[in-house]
Amino acid sequence: MAANHLWRWRALTLQGELQQGTLWAVNREAAFSQLSYEALCPLSLSRTLMLKKWQPQHCYEIFRQLAALLQAGLTLAYSLQMLADQHPMKQWQALLARLANDLSAGCAFSEALKKWPEVFPPLYISMMKTGELTGKLEECCSQLAQQQKSQQLLSMKVKKALRYPLIILALAVVVVLAMVTLVLPEFAAIYQTFNTPLPLLTQLVMGFADFVHQHIIALFFVMLFPAFMMRGLRYHPRWQRFSQRLVLRLPVMGVLVRGQKLSQIFTVLSLTQQAGIAFLQGLESAEESVAGIFWQEALRGARERVAQGAPIGSSLSEARIFTPLCIQLVRTGEVSGSLDTMLANLAHHHNEQTFQHADNLASLLEPLLLIVTGIIIGTLVVAMYLPIFHLGDAMSAG
Fold this sequence. Notes:
mainly alpha
């Protein structure tokens, strides 16, 4: 729960043994009540700050370990307590211990997870509820951990491919500004002492340097204005729809983003189908797990059309976010009764394609960015040193 706080405690057991640990509670009174319920006599209780945010990799790693413990025959509550004892992070120790206590008190695992929406996405709750109903909780935990790890790796791959050119361009801009504001003025002062005309390229660069030097503060705010504007509009629904549509139309970035989103959607749909969850509920889980209001609205519209009795293939086709291959395979699976297999094939296809596009983008951008950066910096260097070849004539004439 968002109102919970992390508390560090020291207490005595009924046998007089000193113990210490952490727990989650809304306030100090609730923390004391929880310790008393566990037959502990509190000695000290202090609130601590959670310095690290909840990381997705920690979440799916816990479910992977939980699946292994359940397959070994351990009970769910005991497995959670074991994971709490061995986890290195205090906040996860307290959370896992809290989940184990909820299970010991008779709460269902899915309901216990539902109390922590900032940690466990809706897909986790749906999968655990399916595992409880079918009696295959360890299989659901294992499949969920594999799916989340694959999606995390894919997301990191796409972000790395898109982040690299931005870093290179930012470094090029910094180098150019440093040369224009620090180096070129010194060369200009030297050239002014000689009564000789400067080459045209040098005059253009010097004029650009003077303009930047005189309006450096205004240019700085002009460069920051789009960032502040996008930061202020990022929560506005209309701007989110527009920006997400615009990204999909970009030549290279659009292919990467579309592939990553479709891989996530079809992976969730395949996972829920294999677990025995109805397709409508699978669409709802995909809608809740995918990021972006544009994608969520498209999936919501498809889910509403399926709920009204429309075929799945035509409902997804009207969403206008799926490729023709997706529509064709979904219709084939719908007619042949092998929808779960087709969804798994689509998830695997888009996952591989996105990885390949990310690798191709990195290999293509590296030489391209080097050429662009070399041209920019080379032009500045040539413009600075070109008048030196004329200085000998100017000095002899003097």
